[in-house]
Specification:
The complex is a heterodimer of chains A (235) and B (259). Chain A is α+β, with helices and mostly antiparallel strands and 235 residues long. Chain A is 28% helix and 30% strand. Classes of the chains: A alpha+beta (235), B alpha+beta (259).
Chain lengths: 235, 259
């Protein structure tokens, strides 16, 4: 069995990151997050009126996320436009990853819509979406406890790697696992944790430990994007 | 229609300029960047002012239609992503999105930019389908012109993926470009009161009586038209609008550059 070896970057190093805030002028807040060849835009609209009315909650607002891959964003065949089971699940886990940093009681009866669109993907798209959405929510001026930083960490045949790309994700010699996480740095809590593959408990905990460095890099990129935006003094 | 908005827009037009200070026949800054999406066979990012969209080309192989067994075909889709405007909602394509997709399709199809026969692999069995998807990132008006420019720029950027007779290997693109012979460019002229203007912002689109989109080829010939909106046009209107649109397509075409 051949162990996988990374050539261009260290095992605990994420791919190159570009983060921006406020790139969609029509939206109330927007974010952009590119990591390697995975690229995500996020736009926030709201808090705004929620329809249909029966979904309104008089004690708190709701966060509604919509994750969508553009038709040409997949590695293989064209992705059919519109929601599917995968995108619905990712929309839901994205909501769950972001809700902990928001105070929804601030806007009863209303909705905050987050639309995440991916022009191109090379694995790690849900994490890139969460990172972009987090920037967009802050850009929209919503009160937040912290930003949410997200990355996928995994192991290929026992060696832990952070921010797997498509080729690495497709590696299937021995036990492999892909573990997308979202982390709230200030409180040191996880708001997203998924795993597919096979791993021992030891490797799982090692992976979570190894992810910390990448999370730090991502968190800094998100903060810098927001600082840059308000340094320019637009809008 | 918002009557106050219309009165205000007309009032500024009478003073000789538009809401954002432009002249009636002036486009905002246009930028075209190709090769922006690595997962697509070809791609382009187009900005006209703050209007921003991305076009990507994917290819598939399918059985040709029975009435044209020696031809491939194209498909155009425009995604009004709910991210791009507070007015767009998730769900099936709106009628505005279908209209833009069909007008872009018509420009490319009717100009015979792509020789569909060259897309055929085996007669009656296999032919390429070229799928052009245009996704809107930010809507600040004039989606029609931007979409058509993005579509043609992405097409010119596109290469066929490898095909071994059985399966397509999307990870490896060949050196063979998708055969695009002409570049139809669309320009839309709006009629508001007695004024004709190009490259509208959403406020102007909201109050326009009618729009006329004209697709023009390199040699000045027209290859597609669409009147949209519920207003009417006189023959004089049409003459002026076609003239203005044809003039403007020359400017837009310059942004394709050597592509």
């Amino acid at each position: 069995m051949m162990a996988y070896k990374r050539e261009k970057r260290k095992n605990d190093e994420p791919r190159e990151i570009t983060a921006k805030a406020g790139i969609i002028p029509r939206a109330d807040g927007s974010g952009y997050f590119k990591i390697g060849n995975t690229e995500a835009y996020a736009a926030v609209y709201g808090p705004r009126n929620l329809f249909p009315r029966f979904k309104q909650n008089p004690t708190k607002g709701i966060l509604r996320c919509n994750y969508n891959m553009m038709p040409f964003s997949g590695m293989g065949n064209r992705v059919r436009p519109g929601a599917n089971r995968r995108s619905k699940e990712i929309s839901m886990i994205t909501e769950n990853a972001l809700i902990p940093v928001l105070d929804l009681h601030e806007f009863p009866n209303s909705v905050v819509d987050v639309f995440i669109e991916l022009p191109q993907t090379d694995a790690g798209s849900r994490c890139a979406g969460i990172c972009a959405a987090s920037i967009a929510l802050a850009d929209a001026g919503l009160a937040m406890k912290d930003l949410v930083s997200s990355v996928a960490v995994g192991h290929l045949g026992g060696t832990v790697f952070v921010d797997l790309d498509y080729n690495e994700e497709a590696f299937d010699e021995g036990d492999v696992a892909d573990i997308p996480i979202a982390f709230i740095p200030k409180t040191e809590e996880y708001s997203l944790l998924q795993m597919d593959g096979i791993t021992s408990k030891e490797i799982l905990f090692e992976a979570l430990e190894v992810s910390k460095k990448a999370i730090e890099i991502i968190y800094k990129a998100q903060q810098d994007a927001l600082k840059q935006r308000y340094k320019e003094g637009q809008k | 229609m918002n009557q106050d908005l219309k009165t205000n827009i007309l009032r500024t037009l009478q003073k000789g300029f538009r809401y954002d200070g432009r002249k009636t026949d002036e486009y905002r800054e246009i930028s075209v960047e190709t090769g922006v999406v690595k997962t697509a066979e070809g791609s382009a990012c187009v900005k006209i002012g703050e209007t921003h969209l991305i076009a990507g080309i994917k290819t598939e192989i399918s059985t040709p239609y029975p009435d044209s067994p020696d031809k491939g075909t194209i498909m155009v889709g425009v995604e009004f992503t709910p991210m791009a405007s507070p007015n767009f909602e998730p769900g099936p394509p709106s009628i505005q999105s279908i209209e833009i997709a069909r007008v872009v399709d018509r420009g490319i199809r009717e100009s015979k930019s792509i020789d569909f026969k060259k897309l055929c692999i085996t007669e009656g069995e296999k032919a390429w389908i070229i799928i052009i998807d245009i996704c809107i990132v930010n809507d600040d008006g004039n989606l029609m012109d931007a979409a058509s420019l993005a579509a043609i720029a992405a097409l010119k950027d596109a290469k066929f993926p490898e095909f071994d007779g059985k399966a397509i290997n999307y990870k490896k693109l060949t050196d063979v470009p998708i055969p695009v012979e002409f570049s139809p460019i669309e320009s839309t002229v709006l009629k508001i009161g007695d004024y004709f203007l190009v490259d509208p912002i959403p406020e102007e689109e909201a109050v326009a009586e009618a729009k006329l989109t004209v697709a023009t080829m390199e040699d000045g010939k027209l290859c597609a038209m669409q009147k949209s909106g519920a207003g009417t046009l006189t023959i004089e209107d049409i003459k002026k609008m076609v003239e203005l649109a044809a003039e403007k397509t020359k400017e837009i075409r310059a942004h394709l550059g050597g592509r």
